[in-house]
């Protein structure tokens, strides 16, 4: 299927809610392609978000996000599993990590 000049497929969207001490995704899986991730800090502490394909070496980052604020990141994802986590202090060890499936 060919796309008209200037046409870009709508990116998939994923919401991530960060609270002490867990991450909640708006969906467990997305399609491969461009993905917009929105981090919403619903907690009382600052949080960030790291994203890496399991088995991959590149980590994508949404920087420190203050309570009540949100930030977005657009990236291209390939099929596989991705790990998402907060890298602040010991938040990951306390349970702030989850996986996303890309199909």
Description:
With 103 residues, the chain is mainly β. Helix content is 0%, strand content 55%. It has no helices and nine strands. The strands form two sheets. The protein has a five-stranded mixed β-sheet, with no helix packed on it. The model has no long low-confidence stretch (mean pLDDT 93).
Provide the fold topology.
Layout: E1 12-19, E2 22-25, E3 29-30, E4 33-41, E5 47-53, E6 59-65, E7 70-77, E8 80-85, E9 97-102
Parallel strand pairs: 1-4, 3-9
Antiparallel strand pairs: 1-2, 4-7, 5-6, 5-8, 8-9
Major beta-sheet overview: 5 strands, mixed
Number of distinct helices: 0
Described by the principal axes of the CA atoms, the overall outline is: globular
Tell me the radius of gyration.
14 Å
The computed structural class is mainly beta
> What is the end-to-end distance?
20 Å
Give the amount of beta strand, in percent.
Answer: over 45%
What does the oligomeric state look like here?
single chain
Query: Roughly what is the average pLDDT, rounded to an integer?
Result: 93
Helix and strand run: EEEEEEEEE
The tally of strands reads 9
Order of strands, widest sheet:
3-9-8-5-6
Uncertain runs are none
Percent helix among the residues? under 10%
């Amino acid at each position: 299927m060919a796309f008209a000049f200037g046409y870009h497929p709508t990116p998939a969207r994923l919401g991530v809610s960060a609270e002490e001490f867990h991450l909640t995704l708006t969906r467990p899986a997305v399609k491969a392609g461009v993905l917009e991730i929105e981090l919403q800090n619903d907690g009382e502490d600052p949080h960030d978000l790291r994203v890496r394909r399991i088995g991959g070496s590149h980590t994508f980052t949404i920087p420190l996000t203050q309570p009540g604020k949100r930030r977005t990141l657009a990236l291209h994802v390939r099929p596989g599993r991705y790990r998402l986590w907060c890298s602040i202090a010991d938040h990951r060890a306390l349970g702030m990590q989850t996986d996303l499936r890309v199909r």
